[in-house]
Amino acid sequence: MAMSGGSDDGEPMMEMNTTPLIDVMLVLLIMFIITIPVQTHAVKIDLPQDSPPQDVVVEPVKNKLIVDTNDTISWNGTPVSQAQLAGILAQTRNMDPEPELQFQPDARARYQIVDEVLVVIKRSGVSKLGFVGNEQYGTFQKAPGS
Length: 146
Fold this sequence. Notes:
Strand order of the largest sheet: 3-2-1-4-5
Distance between the termini: 84 Å
Order of helices and strands: HEEEHEHE
Strand content: 5-15%
Largest sheet: 5 strands, mixed
Radius of gyration: 33 Å
Number of helices: 3
């Protein structure tokens, strides 16, 4: 009563019975689905808190920090060094309310200088930082011979 797909002369079977294989795969799939932890994708956002309206709205001072094509660092139009910049940022950090810092590096400024200025800003602990003039990077064309 042995089951054989071929003749009785010892030839190999021509078809393989895949039903047990499919049963095992379905059991493994169900076990895999059950044991996977629930994925929770959360994005943490600091939403503004509802506060009572104030009679007087205080506009913080907006300071502009520019790095131009000559790698000159300018604070509100006045050239400063990185050491002076660190001192100025420490002063603005202690002001109440803290003024907003608008950072505008020129597209042709050296990356190293811009990176060093960003390190100074990061170390100073400025919390209100905005990048200005980013649209210049979309149309920037590299100069010939560079």
